[in-house]
Specification:
By secondary structure, the chain is mainly alpha-helical. The protein contains five helices and no strands. The chain is flat, with a radius of gyration of 19 Å.
């Protein structure tokens, strides 16, 4: 039952991410009519969701229970931060977060790049705005929908 729930969430998230990215790319990068952009987004989202369904037919979702995980924060024996570790964290956290968002949304970035390379009047600004908005929608949906559902169903995050 948990594997089916996890697969259903994966299908829904793939549909949402791909359809939103295609619609934003059509509107902001390729300057396509909003009605046509919605149709392209719907069609591509359905295609991506069917791709995940086909993948899950051959490779079932692996599910771990959250109760089997380690505790969230281990005890720190030193008990504090020094100046060097604070500076390192202040520099590395934005870098790691930015790279993490790009890796999380690599498919979204690729979709926008395809539209940017195919559209004759595409601008770098439109492509960057489409990437940022697509990743923002993806991350917000992840934290607003996926995390609470996984917590409620006692499924560990991958």
């Amino acid at each position: 039952m948990k594997a089916r729930r996890k697969a259903a969430v994966e299908v829904g998230m793939m549909f949402l991410n791909v359809s939103v990215t295609v619609v934003l790319s059509c509107l902001l990068v390729a300057d396509i009519d909003p009605r046509d952009a919605a149709l392209w987004g719907l069609a591509s989202g359905i295609g991506a969701a069917l791709g995940v369904v086909a993948l899950r037919a051959y490779v079932p979702a692996r599910v771990r229970s959250r109760s089997a995980e380690e505790p969230d924060e281990p005890e720190d024996p030193d008990g504090g931060w020094d100046v060097g570790s604070f500076v390192l964290a202040a520099v590395m956290i934005p870098v790691v977060m930015g790279l993490g968002f790009l890796l999380h949304g690599w498919l979204l970035v690729m979709i926008v790049l395809v539209f940017a390379s195919a559209a004759p009047g595409a601008t770098l600004t439109g492509a960057l705005v489409a990437v940022v908005l697509s990743i923002t929608v993806s991350v917000c949906a992840e934290y607003a929908v996926v995390h609470p559902l996984y917590r409620r169903w006692d499924i560990a995050l991958d």
